Amino acid sequence: MLAFDPTIPPAGRLARLGVVVDATPTPTRARGLARLCDRAGIDIVWLGGVGSTAGHPLDWAEVRVDLESVWGNLERARLGISLPDRESFLRVDDQAAAPAEVCLTGRFGTLDRSLLAGGQRDVGDPDRPRRSALVRDLAELADWLALVDDIVLPGWLFSDLETAADEVRAECAESGRDPTTLGVGVLVPVSIGRTNAEAVARAEMDPDFARFGHPGETGIFGTLEECQDRVIALAHAGVTDLRCILPGTPDVHDVIAQLTAITVGSIAVLRPGALRSAAPAPPDGWGGRPPKPLDQRVSDGSRRR
Q1: CA 295, CA 167: separation in Å to the nearest integer?
Q2: Where are the domains of the chain?
Q3: Which of 83, 9, 73, 63 is nearest to 36 (CA)?
Q4: Is 56 exposed, middle or buried (0-12, 13-18, 19+ CB in 10 A)?
Q5: Residue 171 and residue 4: Cα distance in Å, rounded?
Q6: How far apart are CA 102 and CA 133, in angstroms?
Q7: Are 148 and 172 in contact (CB under 8 A)?
Q8: Which one of 66-70, 119-123, 242-246 scores highest in mean pLDDT?
Q9: Which residues contact 257 (CB under 8 A, 6 or more apart)?
Q10: What spatial distance separates the first Cα and last Cα of the chain, rounded to whole Å?
Q11: CATH class for domain 16-259?
């Protein structure tokens, strides 16, 4: 039986916390962000924008430069790399300076099974990088279940990530694979502020950030408490891995600091697929705020409060 290595939340966290860093525009900024993430306690830094242009073989000499540049700024955080084509994704463990984890972001297409032969390390090899794949359509999920440890759902393509996570586990079980051997991650834009207005301002300051949609609809958005409530809902649905895209603002260090707080908690009391328990009633005579109404943007069946 194949041995997989799914992502699980570290102790004291609702999900593993990762930040996506784009190496393309300014490598110096990418190194600085990686260093900030590492010192703030982020679990993994995902490096994107590496390699050559689409349609051309990946230039591993160039990739190694990017990897080693960022790796030199990490002391405790893991390093992941996003790759656009399946050939590079499947052969990454043949390369020197291979990252700890690798994610395929391009479309699956037609897989040449011969790529898995020869020097390709087996799924159960403990020395290979952990593999994950960004899934754009759950119809292609079955093709990936024999190859990856984690499935990643982009927030801008799945309007209800909690329901999508349920469907991923159900498809995994139907395929004959134990759902506990599959990690479920989400790739989401995140904007946090001490007030809602600050979160809005940060999201609007970066024009590139807008291409993912408003984080209130496609990701994690709002005050610290609102963002933590969203993460609790995702963890309750069985999401084990958060991959966060942050707005490129001058005060991004403050966003990173708040980001580490939203995952604090324990999954010991959460059961994927179960409805969340109601909040306890306030003490008798309590004169505080009235109960918070349901968010109208939440789709039917969501487990968010």
Answers
A1: 23
A2: 16-259
A3: 73
A4: exposed
A5: 17
A6: 8
A7: no
A8: 242-246
A9: 40
A10: 40
A11: alpha beta
Q: What is the mean pLDDT of residues 117-146?
A: 73
Residue, of 139 and 183, whose pLDDT is higher: 183
The residue behind tokens 């479920």 is 184
Q: Is 138 helix (H, G, I), strand (E, B) or coil?
A: helix
Per the CB < 8 A criterion, the answer to whether 182 and 172 are in contact is yes
Q: What is the pLDDT of residue 25?
A: 59
> Per DSSP, what are the bridge partners of residue 190?
220
What's the pLDDT at 112?
42
Q: With 90 as the cut, is the pLDDT of residue 107 above it? A: no
- Residues facing residue 222 across a β-bridge: 192
Please tell me whether residue 20 adopts helix, strand or coil conformation. Answer: strand
Q: Could you give the CA distance from residue 116 to residue 124 in angstroms, rounded to a whole number? A: 13
Cα(267)–Cα(207) distance, integer angstroms: 35
Helix (H) or strand (E) holding 152: strand 150-154
Please, how many CA atoms are within 13 Å of residue 181, restricted to the half-sphere of its CB? Answer: 17
SS3 118: coil
Over residues 56-73, mean pLDDT: 62
- Alpha helix positions (H), 135-248: 141-144, 161-174, 196-205, 215-218, 224-236
Q: DSSP letter at 229?
A: H
CA distance 268 to 74: 30
- How far apart CA 172 and CA 107 sit, in angstroms, is 20
Residue 244 pairs in a beta bridge with 19, 188
Q: Please give the mean pLDDT across all residues of the chain.
A: 79
**Model pLDDT for residues 269-305, shown as the tens digit of each residue:** 676 666 666 777 777 777 666 666 655 554 455 555 4
Question: Higher-confidence residue: 286 or 258?
Answer: 258
Highest mean pLDDT among 35-49, 219-233, 278-292: 219-233
Q: Which two tokens stand for residue 291?
A: 């109960």
Structure tokens that stand for 29 in this block: 């900024």
